[in-house]
C-alpha cells in the first residue's frame, strides 16, 4: 500500500471516529432515555445539544468570574424553595455561612434538615435553619407555606425560587397544570405574589430585598404555547422544561417593571446556574455516562455561586430584571426583551390563578 492510500485510509478512519464520537455524544446526552419519535422531537434534541455545548463552553470561559463573596448578615431572613439536594443544598450552606435565618420550603422537612446537617454543623453555625413543608406545584400548599411565614415574620429579605424538575414524564398536578409549568414557574409566581408585602417591608434605600428566580440557558429555545400550555396535544419533556424556564424570565422582567413603577425597594433577578451535575438529570440519557457529567459539568457548589451572587452581592444593587450567568450578564430569549410580551404573559398568569392585584399578598378565591 503506497503512502497516498495510507493517508486516505487514515483520513477515513479519522472521520469515522468523529462521526462515532458525535453519535455517542448525542445518544448519551439526550433529554430522555428513549429515542425521539418525530421530527419535532428530533429538532428539540438537536437544539438542546447545541445549547449544551455552548453552555459548557460558557461555563469554562467564565469560570474565573464565577465567584461569590460571603459576608455576615445576621439580620436577614431568606426563604428558599427546595434546597434539600443539588444546587439548593449548597445555596443553603452559603446563606447559613452568612449567619442568616434560612427558611426552606420542602416536601419532607425532616430529610431536608438531615441533608443540610450532613454538610453544615447546625450546632455551631450562627445561622438559623427552619424547614417547613411545601409542595410548590400545589397551590394550596403554597398558600399554607406563605401564610405560615407571613404570620411568623415581619419581613422577608430574600426569596429564592429554586425548586424544580427537569425532563419529567407527563403529569398534571392537582390544580390541573402540567408539572414543569406548575413546579418550575406557576407555584413560584403565586408564592412571590403572596410574600411580596413581606419583601417590601424588608427593602430599604440602598439595600433592596431580593427575589431570585433560578432558570436555565434553555430559555433560549423556549416558547410559550398559549393554546396548549399543558402540552396535551404534543407533549415532550424538553419542550415543557424550556417553556417553564422562559416563563420565569418573562415573569422576572415584567415584575421588575411593576416594582420600579411603585418605587419599591425590591429587585428581582433571574439566574442560569450553569450546567450542573445534579439529580435533575435523572430522566435524561446522561445517567448512563456519569463520568461525563463528573468531567464536564459544574459541581453543585459551583452551580450555587451565581444564585447566591444574585441574592447578596452589592455590585448588582439596583440592577433588577437582569439575567445572570457565571457571575455576570448572560444572553436570554428575545421575547423577554419586549415589554409587551412580558406583560402579556404576566397578565395571562394572573388570569390563570385569578389574581386581581399582583403582589398584595391575598390568596385568590
From TrEMBL:
Source organism: Drosophila navojoa (Fruit fly)
Signal peptide (UniProt feature, chain positions): none
Residues passing through the membrane, by range: 12-29
Protein name: Dehydrogenase/reductase SDR family member on chromosome X
PANTHER family: PHOSPHATIDYLINOSITOL-GLYCAN BIOSYNTHESIS CLASS F PROTEIN (PTHR43157:SF31), PHOSPHATIDYLINOSITOL-GLYCAN BIOSYNTHESIS CLASS F PROTEIN-RELATED (PTHR43157)
Keyword tags: Membrane, Oxidoreductase, Transmembrane, Transmembrane helix
GO molecular function: oxidoreductase activity
Family indicated by similarity: Belongs to the short-chain dehydrogenases/reductases (SDR) family.
SUPFAM superfamilies: NAD(P)-binding Rossmann-fold domains (SSF51735)
UniProt key word Transmembrane: yes
Domain of life assignment: Eukaryota
Amino acid at each position: 500500500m503506497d503512502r497516498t492510500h495510507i493517508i486516505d485510509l487514515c483520513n477515513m478512519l479519522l472521520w469515522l471516529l468523529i462521526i462515532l464520537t458525535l453519535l455517542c455524544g448525542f445518544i448519551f446526552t439526550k433529554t430522555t432515555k428513549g429515542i425521539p419519535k418525530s421530527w419535532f422531537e428530533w429538532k428539540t434534541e438537536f437544539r438542546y445539544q447545541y445549547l449544551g455545548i455552548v453552555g459548557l463552553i460558557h461555563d469554562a470561559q467564565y469560570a474565573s468570574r464565577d465567584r461569590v463573596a460571603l459576608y455576615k448578615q445576621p439580620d436577614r431572613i431568606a426563604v428558599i424553595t427546595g434546597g434539600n439536594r443539588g444546587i439548593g443544598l449548597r445555596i443553603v450552606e452559603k446563606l447559613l455561612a452568612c449567619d442568616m435565618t434560612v427558611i426552606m420550603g420542602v416536601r419532607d422537612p425532616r430529610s431536608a434538615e438531615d441533608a443540610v446537617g450532613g454538610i453544615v454543623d447546625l450546632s455551631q453555625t450562627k445561622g438559623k435553619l427552619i424547614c417547613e413543608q411545601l409542595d410548590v406545584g400545589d397551590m394550596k400548599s403554597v398558600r399554607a407555606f406563605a401564610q405560615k411565614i407571613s404570620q411568623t415574620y415581619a419581613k422577608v429579605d430574600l426569596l429564592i425560587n429554586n425548586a424544580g424538575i427537569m425532563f419529567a414524564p407527563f403529569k398534571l398536578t392537582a390544580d390541573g397544570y402540567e408539572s414543569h409549568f406548575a413546579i418550575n414557574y406557576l407555584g413560584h409566581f403565586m408564592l412571590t405574589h403572596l410574600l411580596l408585602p413581606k419583601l417590601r417591608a424588608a427593602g430599604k434605600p440602598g439595600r433592596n430585598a431580593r427575589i431570585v428566580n433560578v432558570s436555565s440557558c434553555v430559555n433560549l429555545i423556549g416558547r410559550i404555547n398559549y393554546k396548549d400550555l399543558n402540552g396535551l396535544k404534543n407533549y415532550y419533556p424538553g419542550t415543557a422544561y424550556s417553556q417553564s424556564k422562559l416563563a420565569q424570565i418573562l415573569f422576572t422582567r415584567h415584575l421588575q417593571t411593576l416594582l420600579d413603577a411603585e418605587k419599591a425597594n425590591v429587585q428581582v433577578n433571574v439566574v442560569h446556574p450553569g450546567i450542573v451535575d445534579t439529580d435533575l438529570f435523572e430522566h435524561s440519557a446522561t445517567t448512563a455516562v456519569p463520568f461525563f457529567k463528573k468531567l464536564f459539568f459544574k459541581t453543585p457548589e459551583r452551580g450555587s455561586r451565581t444564585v447566591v451572587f444574585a441574592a447578596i452581592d452589592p455590585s448588582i444593587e439596583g440592577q433588577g430584571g437582569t439575567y445572570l450567568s457565571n457571575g455576570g450578564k448572560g444572553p436570554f430569549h428575545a421575547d423577554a426583551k419586549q415589554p409587551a410580551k412580558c406583560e402579556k404573559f404576566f397578565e395571562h398568569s394572573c388570569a390563570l390563578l385569578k389574581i386581581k392585584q399582583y403582589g398584595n399578598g391575598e390568596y385568590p378565591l
